[in-house]
Amino acid sequence: MIPGIATVRRVAMLCGIALPLAETVRRSAHLAQWWLWIDDYLIGAALLIGAWASRNRSPAGLRVLTAGWGIAAGMGYYSFVGHVMAAGVPDVSGAPGIALAVAVGAGWLLALAMLAASIVALE
């Protein structure tokens, strides 16, 4: 079952807020290394902009939402592969690397599903 655009928008809003917050908590002791967390803020911004732009379900707004999910999926792939490659090393948060790889992988799969649903909504 493919979720409707209302669900895709709600998930974009939730992820757009939760992802940067979670990354800030995760790297709270290392915030000076901004290049390691800025991607999560960019993903969050893209999702929030997409959710806002698609509020009236205009074709242009739906394209912006789809682009936001495309950014999340593309950047999520890189993050997932990086965490899988470092799965045996403890994370900066102290969590096991494999746990973070699983969490990032789940987030990436969610982004792919929402991207697919937003593409279907464009048709």
Tag the structure with descriptive keywords:
4 helices; mainly alpha; single chain; elongated; 123 residues
Describe this structure in words.
The protein has 123 residues and is mainly α. The chain has one domain (5-122). The chain has four helices and no strands. It has helices at residues 5-26, 38-53, 59-85, 97-122. It is elongated and about 45 Å long. The protein starts with a helix and ends with a helix. The mean pLDDT is 94.
Beta strands, count: 0
Secondary-structure element string: HHHH
- Give Rg in angstroms: 15 Å
Q: Residue-averaged pLDDT, rounded?
A: 94
Q: Approximately how much helix is present in the residues?
A: over 70%
Which ranges are low-confidence, i.e. pLDDT below 50, for 5 or more consecutive residues? Answer: none
How many domains would you count in the coordinates? 1
Major sheet characteristics: none
Number of helices: 4
Structural class, by secondary structure, is mainly alpha
Estimate the global geometry from the Cα principal axes. Answer: elongated
N-to-C span: 16 Å
